[in-house]
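Milestone 3.1: sequence recovery, worked example.
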């Protein structure tokens, strides 16, 4: 990996550059790529706990790991692989969907794993977009085109990540709350949940309480997930839960919440059964709540 690439991984691990890429995701991606022979040495950051290295395997136990993470790469492919990660990062940042799609396809053809492309280029790039927006260097149109570029790659990666022969282990209804149109984080959770064997009903974005209620009646899910990315839309969690209670449906399923500004503390105050900061832990939380894992 180039110096720039490693700097990004190190920064993400130390949460210097961003607080949005969870450490465990970075560690899992690095671990997995090491295991399959992509990097010539193992990265053991100080913050690592023995459990972190096992996270990915625990979460995706039922999925063919070789396909998910990528096969062993030959030395000749190494530099092109590094370039692909760098270029994917840059073109996503610039919102150029065509090269993002082409690079994603090329990466896969070279045997790079979909999760490597996701966690080492696409997500860090979107994190940088958020940082640039905060510092006033990017405006909404730039954010939008970057998100579209990432979604172009996600269309290709989604079926590969979700691929599993497992029977559904539970039903999950997911939606972004009313007033909020952020759906990348939610969709990532959906992909991981489907990959882990859940039947997923995606209600989309800007979902009002009555649509959540209709969906609960229609699909009888084991778990309902609500996503919010704005501090101004987070209060919809409470309103939705109250509406669900009023409709007499609260005891039928577990309710979990998430999204960039959401915390465990906030989830507790709105009466949710759980909160998870990222897609991996959403799968683990869901399995825990349903008694599938301890
Ligand atoms: C892309 C983006 C957009 C795109 C969204 C495109 C799309 N299709 O999603 C567009 C351009 C449309 C947009 C619009 C706006 N945005 Co915006 N956006 C972002 C940005 C850059 C990235 C968000 C993202 O997708 N991240 C990638 C994913 C992977 O993030 P993630 O948090 O890691 O996701 C994980 C967890 O959250 C969790 N999770 C997510 N959902 C759920 C659900 C459950 C149940 C669980 C358990 C877990 C879970 O799992 C996910 C996967 O690991 C963020 C900045 C940031 N760093 O978050 C701003 C950001 C969220 N946006 C922001 C703002 C202000 C806006 C606008 C109001 C701007 C404007 N002035 O118009 C509008 C609001 C539009 C609306 N009504 O919703 C602010 C919010 C500030 C705040 N505190 O409220 C942010 C934080 C930028 C900033 N730093 O100021 N945005």
């Amino acid at each position: 990996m180039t110096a720039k690439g490693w700097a990004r991984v190190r920064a993400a691990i130390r949460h210097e550059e961003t607080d949005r890429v969870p450490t465990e995701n970075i560690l899992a991606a690095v671990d997995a790529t090491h295991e399959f022979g992509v990097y010539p040495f193992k990265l053991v950051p100080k913050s690592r706990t023995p459990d972190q290295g096992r996270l990915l395997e625990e979460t995706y136990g039922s999925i063919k790991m070789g396909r998910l993470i990528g096969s062993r790469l030959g030395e000749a492919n190494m530099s092109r692989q590094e370039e692909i990660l760098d270029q994917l990062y840059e073109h996503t940042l610039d919102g150029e969907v065509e090269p993002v799609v082409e690079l994603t396809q090329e990466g896969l053809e070279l045997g790079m794993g979909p999760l490597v492309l996701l966690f080492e280029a696409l997500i860090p790039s979107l994190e940088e977009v958020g940082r640039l927006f905060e510092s006033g260097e990017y405006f909404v149109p730039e954010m939008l085109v970057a998100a579209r570029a990432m979604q172009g790659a996600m269309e290709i990666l989604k079926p590969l990540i979700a691929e599993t022969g497992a029977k559904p282990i539970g039903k999950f209804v997911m939606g972004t709350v009313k007033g909020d149109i952020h759906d990348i984080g939610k969709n990532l959770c959906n992909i991981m949940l489907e990959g882990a064997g859940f039947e997923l009903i995606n209600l989309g974005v800007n979902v009002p309480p009555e649509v959540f209620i209709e969906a609960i009646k229609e699909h009888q899910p084991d778990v309902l997930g609500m996503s919010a990315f704005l501090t101004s839309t987070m209060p919809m969690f409470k309103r939705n839960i109250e509406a669900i209670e009023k409709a007499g449906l609260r005891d039928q399923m577990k309710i979990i919440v998430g999204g960039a500004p959401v915390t465990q503390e906030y989830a507790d105050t709105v009466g949710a059964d759980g909160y998870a900061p990222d897609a991996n832990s959403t799968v683990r939380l869901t399995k825990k709540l349903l008694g599938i894992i301890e």
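Residues 170-289 form a domain with the Rossmann fold fold (CATH 3.40.50.280). The chain has two domains: 3-162, 170-289.
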